[in-house]
Write a structure and sequence with these properties.
Radius of gyration: 24 Å
Low-confidence stretches: 586-590
Distance between the termini: 44 Å
Number of domains: 3
Shape: globular
CATH class of the largest domain: Alpha Beta
Helix content: 25-40%
CATH topology of the largest domain: Rossmann fold
Structural class: alpha/beta
Strand content: 15-25%
Strand order of the largest sheet: 4-3-7-2-8-9-1-10-11
Number of strands: 25
CATH architecture of the largest domain: 3-Layer(aba) Sandwich
Mean pLDDT: 92
Amino acid sequence: MADDTLGPVVVLEAETGSGKTEAALWRFLHLFKQGKVDSLYFALPTRVAASQAYARVRQAIVRTWPNGGPMVLRALAGYAAADGQTPHALPDFKVLWSDEPNDAEAGRRWAGESAKRFLAAPVAVGTVDQALLGTLQVKHAHLRHALAARALLVVDEVHASDAHMGVLIEHLIASQVALGGHVLLLSATLGAAARIRYLGAGRPQPFQAIPLHRASTLPYPAISDPSGLRATRGAQREKPVHWRSQDCIDDPARIAALAIDAATQGARVLIIRNTVPAAIATLSALESAAPNPDWLFRIGTTATLHHSRFSREDRPRLDAAVEAQLGKHRPAGPLIVVGTQTLEQSLDLDADFLITDLCPMDVLLQRIGRLHRHARPDDARPAAYRTAQTCVVTPTDGDLTPNLKRPRHGLGLFHNGGGVYADVRILQATLNLIDAEPQVCIPADNRRLVESATHPEALRIVESRDERWASHGQQIDGLTGAKKTNARLGLLPFDRPFEELSFPDDIKLATRLGAADRVANFMPPQPGPFDMPVAELPIRFHLLPPGLPEDAAPEDIVAEAGGFTFCFGNARYRYSRFGLERLPDTTPGE
């Protein structure tokens, strides 16, 4: 990362847990020392991931400047913090900081007093959305972009970006570099097609596509810039992984039995489902069948699970609890943790056995990164699980053709063009690799596995099965093109004078499709399932009732054992140890 020959756009690809965050910080310190950048913005895909990274970045800055260094900002709207202190809004746009600093110290934290100023901080950690808002025709876009112009912009987990966000990131890279800034993209599983697009952003002559056979044999881990790709060292140990598929995705009782069998042998088991309802059903099955209730993940005495539908007050406790029970310093003995995609990003987990729903190969490798993550003595793991093992659960008979028409368990395309994992071609290519190779070696096989399941040539092979797959491929490609076109329509044209621009008032532009989530605010806060008052409860867009007014607030709040119910618009919800659920009589179809 301190190579002076690297260009202003760099991609670092390395396995999960290999220290990409620290490598990014080293890149910042190197560029800062040379006077090439003035600040750092560390962009992550989710608020939870940003909160996790904030603590690590702040600790690193303190170690680097032990006698006082630049202010480190947690750049999350409604959850901001500067040097560990939090702001409280006062009338007339004034802010009171939690430690009541003097005027000079308060001025140092000016960037943390409003979301539109976040990018002015010398060091900030937040979501990628804050940076992407500087690329759209929305209020304060020029301000955001100008504030970041001399920064090193780090985009972590860039592989998680969809087609819409990908266009915005390309525009951000091109404009950032044009103004003298630097960009570093981090990923464990970035395909060649995406890497080429990002490295070529803003260049008059785009790079040529790399054929599958060559893409599969490129070095990994690697550092890339527009001049080429070079090998670098990553983890010092290789991890053999035995994996197999099992057709029980519709049977939470069978999944629970697999986990209980492993726990009986002393294993600490991680179960990752693609949807929240499936995760809840799995926990319920475990509670009915587990011979010892203490085997289940819990906060205090309350058994629970880990997903995105918990309050902003409860999520930090869930993160801390799952890392304590399944992290680097975990205790010995049986444990079963159930959750969704929130378990595959940012958390430092180390399971003996992984049970996961089928998902795209790049996502699957992220999940496997939580398996045997840390080196331990052989006697620290059960004898049957001293080699990493993964069970990938699939539809009946491993047949994905029904998902071409009807999505289930996050596999397939919704009628509105969305979906958790909409491209069934990638899922089929992933399943083919699992069934063909009972053992792989991580990270040595990472590059080949990702390309063999996501490269356009690999998808064409799947399409050749029959006309149903070819039709699905055409539908996915068409929707991808439409999303890219839609994203380009909202881009901020940096080559036009400011006075010539007029932003649309009747069109709501977003950094990611379907991101119109809402937050239910409770005043006074309500008693939650883990003895923590609940004041803010995010509600995902697909759980909201149609026509919800902008000023909607929770109504008809009823306390019950272990949580409460409430109305939001004309829908009713329950918040409990299972998280937020829209009650069955009003829940839309999956």
